Q: What sequence folds into this?
């Protein structure tokens, strides 16, 4: 039979279209094969039921279908839901992973950053430490220079320190070494960081004689300089560069950390440098003074001294350094000066020299009490010797004047006595006794005249002329003047008569002979023996006179000392201590020497050694 | 010979006087310059011994006060105990420094002086 498609089929198709899960149950009265096929294939019925079935069956079949549908729908929904949820979960998971990844990255990044920062801080600390430990201004500048070198495209730094208006110190590098110039130009020192400051670039160009293209100027804080050097002190660090704009930013940022320590270091180093150079100047000034100078405390410790005083800086007692002694020098004015708080002076004798010591009290500590002095030692040996020579000349001059007057006053009556004696002698030929008496009177008068003449000659030191003499003549002239000191002793005179004539200043030599015989006699307390002898050596160019005593002798250590001015063993007031030193200088001025042989306890022998000159020109 | 001695030291006058008298000469002695000058004029000596330092007129002052006439007739011996004669105007014949070594040689010297004139 021709089978008309069932109108439900299209309905089924529509239903399938709209809700594919829904169970489509086709109930028909009659099922043919064809209609069955068609119901399944065309209407996509899940189930075909025959109306002929029992109602129960039909109903349960439908119910089953409805259940199936319900199950299938729920399943579908569940699937849908779970798929959706799964998808969401998946998405969530992805996000989480992303976040974890981001976090991890972030954490990793910040660890590096912290490490970097730490490293930077460490470096900064190290740099600051290095700066603070730099021993010299140059060391410090080298550190700064090396630090800046880490940035490429930077040239060596230039430091300008203005200690006062128009007083600038320019520090710069030349061939790797720090150099400095002073400049009296008016450098404009800006107070803040300046990039490309026209004024500065011009001043720099003028100063260095080359153009400066890019320059950054960092101001240096000068707290110490302002305090200790000049309140107007200012400084800048100039850096010439060829950085790009971004590099410049980076550089400026890192410099912001370094500027402060650099600033402080420069401030400190410059002040130190100034102090060192000031103290160096003082030291040079100190050392330049020709007299020994020392700063000494009340315990005689040398605090400082110039190198004339001591070339080593050691804490020692001043008398140890100056006089190599174990106790303060005799007459040292130090304690008096500290007590009186006034400058004092005194003379200190040491090693054959006389020092005029001036002591000036100074207050070194803030305590209000003086416990330090400056000692200045002026060597006055030469001037004292000259002075003493002058005194000796004056003395001899005065004696000469006096002797002149006495000579005149005595010579007149002596002339009368002698002449009258001579007249009377001639008239007393018949009275030998009286005549003999008169002869004695005449002789005594003659002797008196001779003494006066000797005294006149002796005191006449003005007459600086060379005359031909011999020792015999000289000693003969001298002995009468010394009669009172010789009187107590035995005198042995052994002189080669007329053997050794020589040219010399007889008066001066006589003064020396006088001194030596006088000393010899004074040294012998009890009756001793004075031996005066000439030593004649025919082929020698020297001539000698020896004066020997049997006194106590002289200790070996004293052999040099006794020729020092003002050295004396005589009681105060008895000797000036000038005799031997003056004798020595007189004989030396005549080209000779005074030799000394003496053993303690066995007497002394002084030998005058003079050149045997025969012509005036020889001297 | 007529000898004039002008000296303030009595012993010098006395010894010279004795020596010259014993040699047979005539002697006048005065103790100071002023009376010496007067004596010179009246006595007109052949030889005058004049001391340099004297009270009143000194020797050189005395010699200054003499006329050429006075001087011409007399040999002048200037005497001094100061050895030098520096600074003294040379208007005398001989300078004799005191002390004399031998007074008789002085007498002889004086005699020679007058004889040779």
A:
């Amino acid at each position: 039979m021709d089978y008309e498609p069932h109108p439900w089929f299209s309905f089924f198709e529509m239903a399938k279209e709209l809700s594919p899960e829904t169970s489509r149950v086709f109930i028909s009265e009659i099922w043919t094969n064809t209609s069955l096929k068609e119901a399944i294939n065309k209407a996509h019925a899940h189930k075909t039921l025959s109306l002929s079935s029992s109602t129960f069956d039909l109903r349960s079949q439908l119910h089953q279908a409805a259940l199936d549908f319900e199950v299938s729908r729920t399943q579908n929904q569940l699937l849908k839901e779970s798929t959706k949820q799964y998808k969401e979960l998946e998405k969530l998971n992805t996000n989480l992973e992303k976040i974890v990844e981001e976090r991890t990255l972030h954490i990793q990044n910040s660890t590096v950053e912290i490490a970097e920062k730490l490293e930077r801080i460490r470096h900064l600390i190290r740099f600051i430490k290095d700066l603070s430990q730099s021993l010299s201004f140059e060391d410090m500048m080298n550190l700064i220079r090396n630090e800046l070198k880490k940035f490429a495209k930077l040239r060596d730094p230039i430091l300008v320190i203005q200690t006062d208006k128009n007083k600038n110190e320019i520090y710069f590098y030349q061939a790797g070494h720090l150099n400095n110039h002073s400049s009296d130009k008016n450098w404009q020192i800006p107070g803040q960081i300046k990039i490309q400051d026209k004024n500065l670039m011009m001043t720099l160009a003028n100063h260095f004689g080359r153009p400066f293209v890019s320059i950054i100027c960092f101001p240096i804080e000068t707290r110490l300089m302002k305090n200790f050097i000049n309140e107007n002190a200012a400084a800048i660090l100039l850096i010439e560069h060829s950085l790009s704009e971004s590099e410049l930013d980076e550089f400026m940022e890192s410099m912001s950390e370094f500027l402060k320590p650099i600033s402080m270091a420069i401030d400190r180093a410059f002040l130190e440098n100034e102090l060192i150079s000031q103290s160096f100047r003082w030291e040079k000034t100190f050392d330049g003074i020709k007299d020994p100078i020392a700063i000494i405390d009340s315990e005689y410790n040398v605090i400082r001294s110039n190198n004339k005083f001591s070339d080593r800086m050691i804490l020692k007692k001043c008398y140890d350094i100056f006089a190599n002694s174990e106790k303060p020098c005799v007459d040292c004015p130090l304690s008096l000066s500290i007590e009186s708080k006034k400058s004092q002076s005194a003379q200190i004798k040491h090693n054959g020299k006389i020092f005029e010591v001036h002591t000036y009290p100074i207050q070194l500590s803030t305590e209000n009490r003086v416990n330090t002095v400056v000692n200045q030692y002026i060597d006055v040996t030469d001037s004292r010797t000259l002075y003493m020579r002058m005194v000796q000349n004056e003395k001899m001059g005065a004696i000469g004047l006096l002797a002149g007057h006495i000579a005149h006053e005595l010579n007149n009556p002596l002339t009368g006595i002698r002449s009258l004696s001579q007249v009377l002698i001639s008239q007393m030929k018949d009275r030998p006794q009286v005549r003999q008496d008169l002869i004695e009177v005449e002789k005594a008068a003659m002797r008196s005249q001779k003494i006066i003449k000797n005294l006149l000659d002796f005191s006449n030191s003005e007459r600086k002329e060379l005359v031909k003499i011999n020792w015999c003549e000289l000693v003969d002239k001298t002995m009468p003047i010394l009669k009172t000191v010789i009187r107590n002793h035995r005198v042995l005179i052994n002189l080669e008569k007329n053997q050794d004539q020589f040219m010399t200043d007889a008066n001066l030599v006589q003064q020396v002979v006088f001194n030596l015989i006088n000393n010899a006699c004074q040294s012998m307390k009890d009756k001793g023996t004075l031996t005066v002898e000439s030593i004649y050596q025919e082929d020698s160019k020297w001539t000698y006179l020896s004066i020997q005593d049997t006194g106590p002798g002289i200790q070996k250590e004293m052999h040099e000392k006794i020729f020092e001015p003002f050295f004396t063993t005589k009681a105060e007031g008895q000797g000036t201590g000038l005799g031997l030193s003056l004798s020595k200088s007189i004989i030396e001025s005549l080209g000779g020497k005074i030799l000394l042989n003496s053993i303690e306890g066995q007497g002394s022998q002084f030998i005058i050694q003079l050149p045997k000159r025969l012509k005036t020109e020889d001297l | 010979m007529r000898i004039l001695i002008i000296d303030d030291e009595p012993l010098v006058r006395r010894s010279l006087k004795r020596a010259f008298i014993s040699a047979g000469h005539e002697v006048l002695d005065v103790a100071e310059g002023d009376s010496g000058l007067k004596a010179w004029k009246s006595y007109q000596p052949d030889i005058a011994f004049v001391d340099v330092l004297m009270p009143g007129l000194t020797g050189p002052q005395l010699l200054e006060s003499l006329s050429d006439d006075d001087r011409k007739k007399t040999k002048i011996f200037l005497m001094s105990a100061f050895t030098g004669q520096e600074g003294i105007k040379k208007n005398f014949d001989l300078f004799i420094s005191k002390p004399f070594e031998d007074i008789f040689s002085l007498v002889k010297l004086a005699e020679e002086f007058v004889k040779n004139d």
Notes: The two ends of chain B are 13 Å apart (CA to CA).
